[in-house]
Amino acid sequence: MSKKIKLGILGGGEDSLIGILHRVAANMFDRFEVVGGVFSRDFKESRQFAEDLGIGSKKVYKDLDQLIEGESKLPADERIQVVSILTPNFLHFSMAKKLLENGFHVICEKPLTTTYGEAKILEDTLNNAKTIFAVTYTYSGYPMIRQMKEMIAAGEIGEIQKIDIQYYQGWINPIIHNEEQRNSIWRLDPEKSGISCCIADIGTHAFHMAEYVSGLRVEKLLADLNYMYPDNKMDVDGTVLLRFSEYVKGVLRASQTATGEENDFTIKIYGKKAGLKWGQESPNYLYKIEEGQPIKILKPGHGYNSALSLDGTKLPPGHPEGIFDSMGNIYKGVAKAIKGEEYHPGEFPGIKDGARGMNFIEKVVASHAEGNVWVSLDN
């Protein structure tokens, strides 16, 4: 009998990019087996999609309630053990809560929920459920981001002085300027996306990355958002000033109207002794800069890297690793946790990271709405 963890998926069917990303990631280390789920609202399409994947339709259900009911009747060794939630934002909370209450492990796309209050409820539910919960802040899985985290923790750049993080995309630019289109996509619909588009979609990645890599927590922020048109209720661009402490400041810039940009996600952290720079579009290069010294370039797979970085490296030095690998590393960490194996706390973001993200989103929107003022995050 297969010892792989049985994985169910909610959403992610048809031509979903996020669906492909999660399926490839789940299969990467031979730890998970995708066995079913609810891939589409249309049951017929969902069953056909499962057949096309080659997994059969035995464990394909009409909806989440039917999945929980059907799986709960099976012997423990035959049940779906963990469920990945890849649906639009507004469905995350109710789905995750039901799954936790019925004993399932959960892997959830970000943002965790549509409100911070919902996120806190999920935290309490998880405490009672005592299962594993991961939030897929994908970029934390990159080997050189993990190396960056470990170098900072070891004091290699000295006390942090400045954090600069940017996430620029341009995909929404042709949509936002067309009234019919901007009023027809779910990303710009508050009922489905929550109170934020850009900040919730990619700004929360940047926020998580800033805290994950630096080991610091944002105490206060001041935000200035851009909605572009009076009839558009969702932000599509924003700049956020960050205060980690009295003398450690940062800036977070996120935009989905950066014309021509694809996925320009960069982070720069400067300490008293040195600085570190990384960009998602060239993820194999981590730059260390020091005054009076030549630039040092670190790459994955070499013995000089940390154990956390090397554990997430699948190829010999010189072979590019990308976003599939990054997501795969997160799934690998979740598998270790589910199996009760030893794992590094940096291997996958958890529910507290997701809740922090929701707190960040709400505070950014509030800061902007109140006239671009400083507001405090919960700590």
TrEMBL record:
Residues 145-276 form the GFO/IDH/MocA-like oxidoreductase domain. Residues 19-137 form the Gfo/Idh/MocA-like oxidoreductase N-terminal domain. It comes from the Bacteria. SUPFAM superfamilies: Glyceraldehyde-3-phosphate dehydrogenase-like, C-terminal domain, NAD(P)-binding Rossmann-fold domains. Signal peptide: none annotated. GO terms for molecular function: nucleotide binding. This is Oxidoreductase.
